[in-house]
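Write out the bound-state structure for S-adenosylmethionine.
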Amino acid sequence: MNMDTAYHIPALLTETIDSLNITPDGTYIDLTFGGGGHSRAILDKITGKGKLYSLDQDIDAYNNVLATKDNPFMSNPRWQFVHGNFRYLSQFADYYGIAGADGILADLGVSFHHFDTAERGFSFRFDGALDMRMNRSGGQTAADIINTYEEQQLATVLYTYGEIKSARAIARRICEARQKQPVTTTEQLAAIAGEDKKLLTLVFQALRIEVNDELGALREMLLSSLSLLKQGGRIAILTYHSLEDRIVKNFLRSGNLEGEIEKDFYGNPLTPFTIIEKGLTAKKEEVERNPRSRSAKLRVAEKK
Ligand SMILES: C[S@@+](CC[C@H](N)C(=O)[O-])C[C@H]1O[C@@H](n2cnc3c(N)ncnc32)[C@H](O)[C@@H]1O
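---
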C-alpha cells in the first residue's frame, strides 16, 4: 500500500484482529471504519449469521469505500455502515436491533486521510482552512475556537489536551494576532505557535481534541460498550496518546470512568473485565513500514 495515497494504513492489524477472537457467526462493531482495514479483516472472518457494523462520523470514509472497485463491503449482506459519532453507540444499537456484541473495536483518532488532506486543516504540513472537524456536517471548527475562546479558555485547551507547558504564552500570542486579523488558516496558526515541530504537533492535537470532543465521546462510548458486550465478548481499543490511553486503561481495569475498583465483602476486586492485552505496541518492522504506527497502543479486555 502506498503511504502517500492510502486513505489509511491500519496499525497492529493482525494483533488487533487476533485479540478479538472472532467467531464466524458473531456480531461485531468497528466504531472507527476509516479506510476499512480493520473492518475488512473482520469481514473476512465472519460467515453465516455473522454481522459487522462499521461506524464513522466522517462520511468521506463511506464515500471512499463506495468509490473503491471490487471492495468486499458494498452489497455485502453481512455489512452495515453507520454514519455517526460512536458516542451514540447505544442509540445505534437500539436502532439496528443489536441485542449484544461479540466484539467491539475502536481505532481512535484521525486517519491518514485527515492528516494528508490540506483543506481538512488537521496538519501544519500544508496550508488549509483551520477546520479539524471529523464530521463536517456541523459543530465548531478550529477557527471558531481560535477566534472566539477567551485567552484563559485557549490556554486551558492547550494545557489540558496538549500538555503544553507554554500554553499561556501561546494563548496570549493567538489573542494578540487575532486582534489584527482573524486566524483562519493552519499556516497562520503555525506561524503564531512557533517553529518547533513537536510543539506544533501538540498544539494541533489539542485543538483537534477540543473541536471533536474526542475524550467526551470516548467516555460515553466506553460506558455503552460495556452494556452492549455479551458475556465473553471482547473490546479492543487502539489509542494514540497518553490522554486517551489513560481513560481506556482505567476503564478496562475498573469498569467505570473514575477508575475505582470496587471490592466485595471479602476484599476481592469486582471488575467487569478480564484484561487480555495491556498496551501492546507495534514491532520495529511495522514502525519502519508505517511510521505512524509508532504511537499506537492496543488494549483488549473480555467481559466476564
Ligand atoms: C485511525 S482511523 C481508523 C482507521 C481504520 N481502523 C482502518 O483500518 O482504516 C479513525 C477513524 O475514526 C473516525 N472517528 C474518530 N472518532 C470518531 C467518533 N467519535 N465517532 C465515529 N467515528 C470516529 C475518524 O473519522 C477516522 O476515520
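---
The pocket of S-adenosylmethionine is lined by residues 8, 10, 32, 34-38, 55-58, 61, 85-87, 107, 109-111, 134, 217 (CB under 6 Å).
The chain has 13 helices and nine strands.
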